[in-house]
Every structure is written in structure tokens, then in C-alpha cells.
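ARCHIVE CARD
Drawer: 12
Card no.: 0347
Subject: one protein chain, sequence and derived structure
Cross-reference: see card 0346
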Amino acid sequence: MFTKAFKHLKKDPVMNFLIEKYHDKISLDDYRSTNYALSLSNLIIDQQISFKAAITIKKRFAVIIKNLSHQEIIDLDNDKIQSIGISFRKVEYIKNVFSFFIENEKEFHHFDEEKMQKELITIKGIGKWTVEMFLMFELGKPDIFSKGDIALINSVKKNYKINVLKNTELDKLIKSWSPYNSTASLLLWKSIEEKVFFN
């Protein structure tokens, strides 16, 4: 799956190091599902909390919505969803997502990438980061890098020994990784998650 990406990225010593460490430990399948509303809801849960906490909460969420329709999820008591560790604001955002897909699901599947981005941004609670993660994980887009992802930025700083990362420096790296920024991102996330960095 990552053969072409690895071949391209190995030209970069940092990427080469991370590929040797994690070539068999990265995946784009964490969110992939035919249920776009659920994928986006899981991404909302991910926002601004630790990786491990998010996994626990997403498992609990899957249990309380099992076999429920979009409308039944919207009708769930907010307190019940909050009780598994989801903030009130995120509960509202998740319900916004399910409402959007009740109204737009059939059309959404036929949108091109640009149209999808424009439509998703209209949902309250869905920002640029969430859309980028959706494109990367749900739709498998190969060239996504999220400048708004703090873990990614911190990983770049640590691996490339840059204390103050300028936008021009980051753009240069993103351009060098293209068209495989999604794979580069997975490697950088794995690096910071495992606290293993290029020397």
C-alpha cells in the first residue's frame, strides 16, 4: 500500500529513519467506514484530546449508538452522550453532523473533493483540521498535511531540529513530501506517539 510513498519519501533522511522504524506500524484504516457521519463524529471526539483518551471515548460512543439510525442518535439524551466523556459542545457538533447527513447523504457521495470540503465546513463543529483528517482517513487522499495539527507540527520540529518552525520552512518540507504527505503525516504522528525522533 505504501510502496510508492516510501520510495519517494526515503530521499529525506528523517523520513528514511521513520520508514525503517514504522513501515509496518502505520495505517490509513482507523476511520474508514461507509458511515461518513460516524467517521466525522469520531474525528470530533478526537479534537483537542489525547490519542489514548480518544480511543477509549470512541469505543464507548460506538456502544451507545450501536444499531441506531441517524435520527435515533439525534434523539439520544445529551446527558447520556456526555456521560461517556464527550463535552456538551461536542455532543451538539456530533448531532449537527448526523442532521447534515440525514438531509444530504445521497448527494454527498457524488461530490468531488472541493465540493465535499465546502459542504463539510458549513457544519457547525467541523473545521479545516476535521475536513483534512476526513479526506486523509475516510477517503484515502494521499497528499494531505494538516498545518493545524499540533502533534504533527511538534513532530516536525523535533525530527528536523527546528525550534521555531517558519511557514516557509514547513511549506518546503510539504512540497518535498508531495504527493505523499498523508504517509509522511502518519510517520510523523507515529514518531511523536512513540517519542522516537531522528538524531
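Annotation on reverse: The chain is about 65% helix and 0% strand. Residues 102 and 108 are 11 Å apart (CA to CA).
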